[in-house]
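C-alpha cells incoming
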C-alpha cells in the first residue's frame, strides 16, 4: 500500500477552523490517547467500548504490522484531534463483500470526544481525511461501511460526495456500503477552491 506523506501542519483546514495535519499513529506512544477516544460513549460505533489499554495497543500494533491497513493521528492546530484508519478493501473489512474497482481505498475516521464542540469541525475533519486519501494519485474511489443506524456519519458522508451503494451484512454489523470518487468529492466540496 502506498503511504502518502503528511499534510503540512500549517495547511488551513477546509472550513478555516485552523490547521490540520496527519501523521502515522505510533501504537507505543499513542495507545493511551486512542484508548480514551475509542472507549468513550460517543464512539459506540467504533465497537471498542469495553477495550482495555492493552487491547487498544494490541489492535494498533496489528494494524501497523498489516500490509493492507494503517492508522494515522489527525492534528488540529498541532493537537491530536482525530483518528484515521486506511485499508485496502479487497484485503481488509470488505474482502469478498463488494465489487471492487481499481483504485479503491477504504477508510474509518473518529473525531476525539470533546465537551466543547465546534460547529463544522467534524465536516472539516472528514474533508481533511478525504483530501489526505486522495493525495495518493492511485486512489480513485473511497469506500466506507458505516453502521446502518449511524445517521450522523451517513449525513457527513453524503455532504462530501458519498453515494450509498447498498446494505451489506458484516459479522459485527449491518452496514451501508458507500463510495465516493475523486470527482464526486471535488464536486461536493468545491475541489481546489478549499
Amino acid at each position: 500500500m502506498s503511504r502518502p506523506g503528511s499534510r503540512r501542519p500549517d495547511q488551513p483546514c477546509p472550513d478555516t477552523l485552523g490547521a490540520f495535519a496527519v501523521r502515522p499513529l505510533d501504537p507505543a506512544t499513542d495507545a493511551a490517547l486512542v484508548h480514551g477516544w475509542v472507549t468513550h460513549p460517543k464512539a459506540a460505533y467504533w465497537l471498542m467500548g469495553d477495550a482495555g489499554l492493552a487491547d487498544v495497543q494490541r489492535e494498533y500494533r496489528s494494524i501497523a504490522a498489516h500490509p493492507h491497513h494503517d492508522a494515522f493521528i489527525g492534528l488540529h492546530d498541532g493537537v491530536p484531534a482525530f483518528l484515521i484508519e486506511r485499508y485496502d478493501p479487497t484485503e481488509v473489512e470488505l474482502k469478498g463483500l463488494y465489487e471492487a474497482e481499481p483504485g479503491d481505498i477504504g477508510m474509518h475516521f473518529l473525531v476525539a470526544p470533546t465537551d466543547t464542540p465546534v460547529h463544522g469541525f467534524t465536516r472539516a475533519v472528514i474533508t481533511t481525511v478525504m483530501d489526505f486519501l486522495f493525495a495518493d494519485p492511485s486512489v480513485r474511489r473511497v469506500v466506507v461501511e458505516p453502521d446502518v443506524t449511524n445517521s450522523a456519519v451517513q449525513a457527513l458522508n453524503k455532504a462530501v460526495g458519498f453515494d450509498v451503494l447498498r446494505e451489506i451484512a458484516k459479522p459485527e454489523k449491518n452496514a451501508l456500503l458507500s463510495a465516493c470518487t475523486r470527482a464526486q468529492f471535488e464536486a461536493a466540496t468545491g475541489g481546489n477552491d478549499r
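note: The beta strands are 20-24, 69-76, 79-87, 104-111, 141-144, 163-170, 173-181.
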